[in-house]
Amino acid sequence: MTRPSGALLEAVQTNCHIADARHAQDLSLCTFLLQMREFHRWERGLPLNAPLQRAEVGAWIAQREALWAELEAREFLRLPLEGVDDAGGEPFETAPLNAQLQAQGLVYGAGWAGARRPGFFLAELIELRAIEAEGLRVQLCGREWARGLFAPPAVLAGDTIVLRREAMARWLWEKFEVFGLKRADGPFKAVAQAYDLERDFLAGLPRMLDEQAETLILHEIGEHRAGRRLGPAWGEMLLALDDRRTELLLRAVRDHLADLGTTLPALLERDEAVSLHFWFAGYDGVRRQLFPGLADAYRAWCDGLGTAALARACTAGERHFAEVAEQALGLWREHGAGAARPIDALLRAAAC
Fold first, then answer.
1. DSSP secondary structure string, 53-85?
2. How much of the chain exceeds pLDDT 90, in percent?
3. Pair 96, 81: CB distance under 8 Å
4. 3-state secondary structure 306-318
5. What is the three-class DSSP state of 154?
6. Model confidence pLDDT, tens digit, residues 113-169
7. pLDDT tens, residue by residue, 238-252
8. Helix 292-302 crosses helix 308-335 at what angle (to 10 degrees)?
9. Model-level pTM?
10. Mind listing the pLDDT tens digit for each residue in 257-276?
């Protein structure tokens, strides 16, 4: 495993800290604390299931917030690259850096996790493979050398699906920790039973990563298809609307188009029951508020009534949210940056 140069590693991690300094406050307190606990484990090199001392974590959070206060107003650093002038490479131009790093078994990622929220990472490159039918490729990443507080397990970056295996493992551990507080019946309990997680989480984790990574990839394929369907105007609208609540609702609409049109139909066709439970274990928040009927169809499937209700819900839901998306775009074209309020009203009334 190749370790990145100290100068590059320091520059990328500094940019991660700057991004966190600007945007950690966007998180709810509960989400912030959960992510900070896992970030602490990563930074200290601790195992996923290592017990944490509250006082130690609290002191670390205080130190990190002090660092963020120092960095919040800083510009992102340019990155040291061979063959580039002393100013370094532009931090959001990933291609020149990856052209050098891939030969070393490394990969650099930079992009926007939201309309205004940047994210960076530097990791081991495990595999590159093509999905020729979609014109996409999958970039499978392993050990992460630099990362920020927000570490999505999978993202679509241009024509590349970036799958961060270590980030996915930590994300799954967070879910398991929350489940362990009550061990309530529901989709995650079904996943835990399928992989025997309550007996030994770490033993079941590799198979869960291998199998459920494909579910995440299906979602990103769906995102790619939804992006082609909605066109560039969708991204322009997200950037123009300065309203966090409306942005979350619009992202939930696009997620529905991706999953109702691609992810769930594929899982139903493949008869992948565990993956369906896995998908519904993450079906919450704004997405569920917009489409509570999908959860009803899932419960019918769990009760042994077959997949017909789920299949119908996918078909009807995809059609519904495609219409809602077009109506939102129409409001934006009509009202421009002032469209946040009418779009918000549209989406709040769009639940089905």
1. -HHHHHHHHHHHHHHHHHHTTPPPPPB--TTS-
2. 74
3. yes
4. CCHHHHHHHHHHH
5. strand
6. 665 678 899 999 999 999 999 999 999 999 999 999 989 999 998 899 999 999 999
7. 888 878 888 889 999
8. 170
9. 0.92
10. 999 999 999 999 999 999 99
Ordered strands of the 106-112 beta sheet: 106-112, 118-131, 136-147, 160-164, 154-157
Taking the C-alpha atoms of residue 341 and residue 133, their distance in angstroms, rounded to an integer, is: 39
Cα–Cα distance for residue pair 155/119, rounded to 1 Å: 11
Question: For 259, which DSSP code?
Answer: I
- Residues 114, 111: Cα–Cα separation, whole Å: 9
* pLDDT band at residue 96 under the 50/70/90 scheme: confident
Q: Tell me, what's the pLDDT at 84?
A: 55
A 10 A CB-CB count for 191 gives 25
Length of the chain: 352
Cα-trace Rg, the chain:
21
Cβ distance 48 to 39 under 8 Å?
no
Closest alpha carbon to 112 in 142, 159, 143, 150: 150
The C-alpha atoms of residue 109 and residue 310 are separated, in whole angstroms, by 36
Q: Are 186 and 281 in contact (CB under 8 A)?
A: yes
Residue (of 87, 302, 329, 70) closest to 186 by Cα position: 302
Specify the amino acid at residue 73.
Answer: A
Candidates 149, 132, 145; CA nearest to 25 is: 149
Instruction: DSSP letter for 2, please.
Output: P
**How many other C-beta atoms lie within 10 A of the C-beta of residue 350?**
21
DSSP letters spanning 288-309: HHH-HHHHHHHHHHHTT--SHH
Contact, 128 vs 14, CB < 8 A? no
Nearest partner of 177 among 53, 35, 337, judged by Cα: 35
Going from N- to C-terminal start, the domains of the chain cover: 6-168, 202-348
Tokens of 313: 């819900």
First-last CA distance in the chain: 49
Measured from the Cβ of residue 253, the count of other Cβ atoms closer than 10 Å reads: 26
- Asked if residue 249 lies in contact with residue 290, where contact means CB atoms within 8 angstroms, the answer is yes
Which residues lie below 8 Å from residue 19, measured CB to CB, with a gap of 6+?
76, 117, 118, 119, 120, 148, 150
